[in-house]
Amino acid sequence: MTTVEIREVVPDDANQRLDRWLKRLFPSLNQIKIEKLCRKGEIRINGGRVKPSRRLASGEIVRIPPLYHATPALKKIENTFLKLDVAMIKKSVIYKDNHILVLNKPAGLAVQGGSGQKDRHIDSLIEVLREGDMDKPRLVHRLDKDTSGILLLARDRKTAELLTKSFRSKSVRKIYWALVAGLPPENVGTVRYSLVKQKLSSGNEKMISVPPNEEKAYPDAKRSVTDYVVIEKVSHRATWLGLSPITGRTHQLRSHMAAIGCPIIGDTKYGTRGQVNEGDGWGAQIGGIISRKLHLHARSITFEHPFNKKIIFVEADLPTHMIKAWDTFNWNLKWAPKDPFAIYE
């Protein structure tokens, strides 16, 4: 931008801090530069001087001076990531409109940064999915690093708020597919074990499933509910399950499946050596040529579009290691309807 720009604050941007609003519009504009421009009076609201912390109001007019190097070209953003990662994140988009993006997240890719993740995670890579003056897409829910599949993103702040409300009201329906060791007690069932965080001797944490009759001993345990349905099975050795989390706790599906004696294949955290199940070995492995990767995939999502109110259904293809497992058992993906719980209705 080489000329003065005048922008009107839209209702969706009301109550944002000026500095955060500017950083969203101009990602390479840092805090020091914003403070300097405000101090010199080059950034103004309704003609008056302002501080970076000033809260915006709908309809206000913001004067933005020439920012010769503040608006990065998309190529410059992409150059900060490996070309393979840029191609991967673009290819992962399976639904897109003016308000929403849906990704098919690869297994093994973290959603946000953490220990050892550096900048290779979804929250950083989605910067390349920004278009023009639009916001960087926003996360509205999470998936474990080793879980693949549906990840819903909002393309603006208002959409993020509305989608977050939909998740909280439990009006968003998510279906996961899992390959588990053993066979659940019923073809269709519900696990109602509360979850409490436990510190391990290694320093790591684990979510422990607490049966209803033991909840009094764990006052910090949070109510957690998972519906499951058997889609196909190999005797009592392995089962293809459809899972629907009614609540959205950390590691809920993994802990609940282990608690009923059916840990998810490849789950070394919850399918330990002491796990009682019909599968072989430890770490919820069933041997043979089945991959040791986690076999948990967010298969589909159904929700009401926050603006046009249409029902959106999006389905994500399985990752390669799960496709190979299904082929090994001669399971046909078409055996599962969009809503696998309809099998037993």
Brief description of this entry?
The chain has 345 residues and is an alpha+beta fold. It contains eight helices and 16 strands. Strands 5, 6, 7, 8, 9, 10, 13, 14, 15 and 16 form a ten-stranded mixed β-sheet that branches. A four-stranded antiparallel β-sheet has the order 1-4-2-3, with no helix packed on it. The chain has a two-stranded antiparallel sheet with strand order 11-12.
Give the name of the CATH architecture of the largest domain.
2-Layer Sandwich
Number of strands: 16
DSSP helical segment count: 8
CATH topology type of the largest domain = Pseudouridine synthase
Domain count: the total is 3
- Assign the CATH superfamily of the largest domain: Pseudouridine synthase
End-to-end Cα distance: 60 Å
Runs in which pLDDT lies below 50 for 5 or more consecutive residues are 69-74, 275-282
How does the major sheet shape up? 10 strands, mixed
Helices and strands, in order, run as EHHEEEHHEEHEEHEEEEEEHEEH
Q: Give the proportion of residues in helices.
A: 10-25%
Strand content: 25-35%
Report the principal-axis shape.
elongated
CATH class of the largest domain: Alpha Beta
